[in-house]
Amino acid sequence: MCGITAYVGDGQAYPYLLKGLERLEYRGYDSAGVATVNNGQVQLHKTPGKVEQLKSTVLPGKIGISHTRWATHGPPTKDNAHPHLCQTNSIALVHNGIIENYAQLRGQLQEKGYTFKSDTDTEVLVQLMNYYYGKTYNMEMALRKALHDVVGAYGIVAFHKDDPRLYAARKGSPLVVGIGDNENFVASDPAAFLDSTRRVLYLEDEDIAVVSKNDYEIKSLCVGEEECVHRTEESIDWDLSSVEKNGFEHFMLKEIMEQPESLKHCLAGRIDLTTGGIKVTIDLPEHFVKRLSKISIVACGTSSYAAYVGKYLIEKYSRIPVEVDVASEWRYKNPIVGPEDLVIVISQSGETADTLAALREAKKQGARSLGVINVVGSSMAREVDSGIYIHAGPEIGVASTKAFTGQVVALNFLALRLAEMRKDLRHEEVLLAIQELEKTPELVTSCLKEAPEIKEVASQIKDAKSVFFIGRGVNLATAMEGALKLKEISYIHSEFFPAGEMKHGPIALLEPGFPVVTFVNKNDPMYEKNLSSIQEAKARGAFIIAVADHVDAVLTSNADAILHVPTVPDILQPIINVIPLQLLAYYVALARGCEIDQPRNLAKSVTVE
Ligand code: M6R
C-alpha cells in the first residue's frame, strides 16, 4: 500500500525518485507526487493517476521525497496526493499507513489556526510536525513529538527546506535505508534504489532514521533522543532483472512463466535424496511439536487459500486438527490459543497489516508462531518464532502467482517436517513425498506449454458475466485461488464452491453457457464425486472447463474445454492445477483489455487495515 522513495546526495534527486516510484508502482497507483528543495524553497509536483504523468516536469534539487498512493482517506485527487506540505511550506512529508486519531488531531490543530488542503490523515502529521518545529526548531524533535501524539501505523519520510537531511520513521509499514557513495536512499522496498546500491538497513518498528548524503543515524522512539540503536547492514542478493519485465508484456505473465525457476529456489538445499531427509529446520522444541493438539493458520487472500492446502497436508500426515482463518477475522475473534498452540502465518509480502496484527495477537496470547513468507527481512519474518522462506523472488504483479505455488511447496515441507518430528510418518513415506516434490519444476514446465490452448479457451469465456470454480478436498483450495485470480484482474464475477454444495443452492444460477471450471485428476480421492458434479452442471447447460490429467469418454461427453495437466499425487495437485487457472485469468483479462498488473482498486501489499 503506497510506495515511498527518498534521495539525498550529490546527484539530482528527481530522476532517482521517478525511477524508484516506477519500481514501486505495484504498491499503489492512483496518484503520485514528488517534492524536492531548490534554493531553499520546497518544489512540489503531484498528479492523480500514474507515475508516468510526473515525467512532464523535472524538479531541481539534491534532496527529495516521492510517493505513489493507494487511497485510504479521500479520493485520488491532486490535493490528496502526497507529498503533503505544512502550511508554511517548509516541511514536506510522505506517508504509508493510517493515522487512526487524525480527526481528533486535525480538530486540535484547527483550533490552533491550522488550515487543511486535503482530506488525508497524512496532512495532519505534517502540520503537527510544523507545530512542534515551531517550538523546538529541530526536525528530529518535531518528528518524535508528533509521533508520540499519533495512534496508528506509518512509514514516513520528511524533510525541512533548511535542513539537508531526510527524517524517516516506521511503525507497521516497511522502510529500508539504502547506503550509497555520497548518496543515500530511503524507500518502502529496496527495488526502488537497487541500481544504485545493494547495501541496506531495514528499519524496525518505532525506529527513526536521520539520513544525510554521507551518513545515517538510527534511533528509537522508545529510547532517549541521544542514543543510537544498532541495525545490521545487509546486502541484497537478488537481481534487478527480477523486478523488471524482461521482455514480457506484464509482470503477471513473467511471474507465471518463471514458476519452474522459483520452485527450484524453494526446493534448493532442502532435500537430501540420498538419505531421504528434509533439510528444513523448524525452530520449535520437539516436545512442543509432539504435544500439539491444534494448529491455526492465519493469512489473507491467496495466502489464505494456500493455508487450506497446509491444513489438508497436516491433517493428512499428522491428524492434528488445523483451523484456517482470514487474518482480519481471526485477530478480532478473541482467538482461543495459548502456549500449547502453534499459529502459522502465511504471507508473500510479510507486511500485510491484518496478518501481522494476527501474529502479534498470537504471540500476546503466548502461542508459538511460524511463518511461511516470501520477502526476506520483512516484518513478519523478523517477528515469527520460526519460519520457512519460499524464495520465490520479488513478486510485482498484484495478482499473486508464483507466491502461491511456492507457499504450497513450503507447506509440503512444513507438514512433512512436523510429521517427521512427531514420528507420524515412516521414513519411506517422507522419502516418497519429497521425491514427488522434487519433480514440481519440471511438471510446472509442462503445464506452461499449454498456454496457447488456454488462450483459446479464454477467448471463449471472455464475455461471461460470471464463472464458477468448483472443487473438493485439496482442490477446493485450487478452486478458491482460480476464482480470485479471475475476478481480481478481469473483473468478471467469479465464485468458488465446494462441488458438493452446488446442489444446495448455487446450481440455481446455472443456465446454458455459464462457465464452470472444475478438476479431474486420477489421483484425487474425490475423483468420482467430481465427475458427478460435472454431470449435474452439464445437465443444466453449463460450459464445462475441466482441468484434467487424462481424457476418457465420460470427460469428452461432458467437458466443453479441457486444460491438460500431468498426473500427480493429491499433495501436488493444487500446484499443477493452478497453473492453467493463472493463465486462464491472465488471457481473459488480456482479451478484455484490463490493466493486468495494476487492477483497479487493488494494491500489492495491504499494509493498512
Ligand atoms: O502479501 P500477502 O501474501 O500477505 O498478501 C495477501 C493478499 O493481500 C494477497 O494474496 C492478495 O489477495 C492478492 N491480490 C491475490 O492475488
Instruction: Note the total helix count.
Output: 19
Could you tell me how far the N terminus lies from the C terminus, measured between alpha carbons in angstroms?
10 Å
What is the average per-residue confidence, as pLDDT, rounded to a whole number?
Answer: 94
CATH level 3 topology of the largest domain: Glutamine Phosphoribosylpyrophosphate, subunit 1, domain 1
Query: Any idea of the CATH class of the largest domain?
Result: Alpha Beta
| Unreliably modeled segments | none
Report strand order across the widest sheet: 3-2-4-1-10-9-11-14
**Cα Rg:** 25 Å
The biggest beta sheet is recorded as: 8 strands, antiparallel
Classify the secondary structure makeup into a structural class.
alpha/beta
Total individual domains: 3
Total beta-strand segments: 26
The general outline is: globular
Please give the share of residues in helix.
25-40%
Considering the protein shown, what is the CATH homologous superfamily of the largest domain?
A: Aminohydrolase, N-terminal nucleophile (Ntn) domain
Q: Cofactors and ligands present?
A: 5-amino-5-deoxy-1-O-phosphono-D-mannitol
**Strand fraction band?**
15-25%
CATH architecture of the largest domain: 4-Layer Sandwich
